[in-house]
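Multidrug effflux MFS transporter
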Amino acid sequence: MTSKRYFLLIMILGSLTALGPFSIDMYLPGFSDIAKSLHTTTENVALSLSSFFIGISAGQLLYGPLLDKYGRKPPLYAGLGLYIIASVGCYFSDSIEMLIVMRFIQAIGSCAATVASIAMVRDIFPVKDSAKVFALLILVLGASPMIAPTVGGYVTAAFGWQLIFIILAVISVLITLAVIFFLPESYRADPSYSLKPKPIITGFIAVIKTPQFYTYAISGGIAFSGLFAYISSSPVVFMEVFKISSKTYGWIFALLSVGFIGSSQINSMLVKKYKSQQIVNAALIAMVIISALFLVGSMQNILGLVGTIIMIFLVLCCIGITSPNTSALALAPFEKNAGTASSLLGAFQMCIGSVVSVGVSLFNSQSSIPMSAVMLVASSVALLVLIVGRKNIKTRVEAKNAEFVSH
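Tokens:
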């Protein structure tokens, strides 16, 4: 493969991977304008973000079987087409209810891009190059939350929030054209692949019943929900409580993204010296302590804008370190059904996130207390699940060893 061809494939797959994050982050600075335009509150606008998370949760489980049944590109075309239609629907939304529904449909469409891009990396590139390719995709994914809200803030200020969704639709059209003309079909359709519910559900149940999976999937998913609490609450906290502009909010969001992205890169150095189990344990303990200080500071109203930014930054650093380790540990027991486990892990993470984002939105509080409270509860429950779950993993390992010795 030539370097030019390699670069082109990375750019297309990276664009597919980044479509979902762009769709989440780009319209956040427009929350206040959307609320005024649709005659509602920013808390109700946040429900359109929650519906997007719910759509991603459903889509994670939907596209895996379709990609194996019909090949990679037909489901991808269907998803991108759905995304374009829903983006136009968001532009024409004249009520918050319509926007919430359109965002849900938009999320279902964007999932095709995410799931297909991961599958196509495995199809197109040699196994020895997969880690390098995924690292490049993660770099693109990490850059998107720094770019999207900043661009969204300027677009909202200059042209209004509706234009954001036209921009997303145009981006999706360009990606679709790139897929049609430059991305090869990497997997032949398999007519023998069954889409009947029973074998699919049986595969999911087998994964869920594995102690190492449910321990780290639940613990990591709950801890990761702290990120969703931040994303859902940040427009209210920064633009309404601290009265900053949509442009400034975009820059603050980009700055805080550095904490999450940078800590995940630091984690790659930590795993060379420490076990993932040790790193997860330390990161969750730190997250509990920082979240507790954040909550106390919020309740006493002593943090101010700078103090709030620092606290959120530190919590996101903890999540950035916890997330890759819990994901790796959850998927470690699986070889043949790693795809099923991966899709279930993503769906589980997004499901918890959607519940948390809805919960935070319903608080209707003009302060950072709901955000900090959710972060504290999430980190505490995650740590408790980790402690209890490890006992079940140890018991299962000891039982297997005893069975092996008896034979």
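The radius of gyration is 21 Å.
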